[in-house]
Amino acid sequence: MAAVIFLSLFISTVWGLAPSGPWDQFNFAPASRVVTPQSVFQVVGSVDGAQELVSGQDGQATLSGDGSYVVLDFGKEASTVGGRVSLTVNQASSDSALSLSFTESSQFINPKLSDDSCFSTPTLDGDGVQSLPSPLAEGLFTQTVGEQRGGFRFMTIVSNSDSPVTISNVSLGITFMPQLDDLRAYTGYFSAQDPDFHDPDFLTKIWYAGAYTVQTNTLDPHQARQQPCPQPQGWANNATGGPVEGTILVDGAKRDRNVWPGDMGISTFTEVVTTADLESSKNSLLVMYSTQDPATGALQYSGPP
Ligand SMILES: *[C@@H]1O[C@H](CO)[C@@H](O)[C@H](O)[C@H]1NC(C)=O
Ligand SMILES: *[C@@H]1O[C@H](CO)[C@@H](O)[C@H](O)[C@H]1NC(C)=O
Q1: Do the beta carbons of residue 116 and residue 101 sit within 8 Å?
Q2: From which residue to which does the signal peptide run (predicted)?
Q3: Please, where in the chain does CATH 2.60.120.260 lie?
C-alpha cells in the first residue's frame, strides 16, 4: 500500500503567529534568549558540585587540580546554541587559571581544543581554547562579542592550575536573530506525517531542524567571522559582514559567518515561511551588490570579510 503523506504548509498572510499544534514539540528554538546548561556530560579529575552548574540549580562547583574539567551540555535534543557565555567566579587565588573549549559534537570534546570554527584544518587545532584573563578575577565573566561561539552544544570548563577555583551561574546569552525576543514565535508551521515510515514525524523534524538552523544563521552584521583567523590559534566573531545595519542571513552559524548567496536559494524561503523575516535576505542581497565590480558587473562569490 502506498504511503499516505499528509502535508500541510501554512503561511499567514498577515504574518500573524502560526496556530499552535503538535508540530510545536519539534520547534528547536529555545524559549528564552538566555539559556543554561541542560546537564553535566562528563567530569574528569576533581570537580566538586558539577551538578550545581546545570539549569535549575544555583549552587557552586569547585575545580581542583591542574587538568580537572567538567563538560556541560547546552543541547536540547541535538540542537546547538550560539552566543556569549557568562559565568561567575566565586573564589579564585592569584594563580588559579580557567579555560573554555567548545564543540558541536561530543566526538570532539577536548580540554585543549575546540572544534574548528575559524578555518578547517585536518588536525582540528585551529581554534584551541579560550583562556580566561590571568590573574583570574572573582566576579562575573562574560565573553566579548569577538569571543562568542556561533554554534556549540558542549562547553568544557578546565582548571589549568593546581589552585582550586569555585564557579557558578553558567549561562549563554543568545546573539543570533537579535530582532526576535521570542525565538519560538514562528509565523508558519509545517506538519507532514507518514504513517508507514518508522518515524511518522520524520519530515516534520527535518523541517524544524532546518528552520532553527536558519535562525542561527541570522546575525548582527558586526558579528561575522574575522579573516584571517587569530594566530597561532583562536577565533574572532566581531568582523563586519557588509555595509548594512539590522541583520544578515549568512551561510553558517559556527564557521562561515558571512553572506553566501548560493545558500539563500534555500535559506531565504525557509526563513520567510518560518519567521516571515525578509529583512535579513534583503540585507544580504545588498551586501552582495556592494561587491559588484563596476567595470565588469561581476559579483563576488561571497560577502565580506
Ligand atoms: C549571573 O549571570 C547573569 C548573566 O546571565 C548576570 O546578569 C548576573 O549578574 C550573574 N549573577 C551573579 C551573582 O554574578
Ligand atoms: C575582535 O575579537 C578579537 C577576539 O576576541 C579581539 O582580539 C579583538 O580585539 C576584537 N576587535 C575589536 C575591534 O573589538
Answers
A1: no
A2: 1-16
A3: 34-174
Helix 261-275, helix 279-289: angle, nearest 10 = 160
Considering the domain 34-174 in this protein, what is its CATH number? 2.60.120.260
- Distance from the alpha carbon of residue 130 to the mean position of ligand 1, in angstroms: 20
pLDDT value of residue 14: 52
Ligand nearest to C-alpha 127: 2
Residue 41 amino acid letter:
F
Whole-number pLDDT of residue 162: 97
Say how many C-beta atoms besides its own lie within 10 A of residue 25's C-beta: 10
Q: What are the backbone angles phi and psi of residue 284, rounded to the nearest 5°?
A: -65, -35
The grid cell for 96 is 588559579
Q: Give one DSSP letter per residue of 268-292, joined into a string.
A: HHHHHHHH---HHHHHHHHHHHTT-
Pocket test for ligand 2, best of 129, 220, 238, 240 (most atoms within 8 A of CB): 238
| pLDDT on residue 8 | 40
The pLDDT > 70 percentage for the chain reads: 94
185, 12 Cβ separation under 8 angstroms: no
Lookup result for grid cell 529583512: 279
Query: Distance from the CA of 301 to the center of ligand 1, in angstroms?
Result: 42
For the cut 50, the answer to whether the pLDDT of residue 3 exceeds it is no
Of ligand 2's atoms, which has the minimum distance to the CA of residue 239? 1
- Tell me the CA distances in angstroms from 263 to 223, 251, 291, one per residue in order: 19, 6, 17
Q: Which single residue is written with the C-alpha cell 585551529?
A: 126
**CA separation for the pair 60, 88 (Å, rounded):** 9
Q: How many CB atoms lie under 10 A from the CB of residue 293?
A: 9
**Residue located via cell numbers 559588484:** 292
User: 3-state DSSP helix/strand/coil percent for the chain, to nearest 5?
Assistant: 15, 30, 55
Verify whether ligand 1 is closer than 6 Å to residue 88 (CB atom). Answer: yes
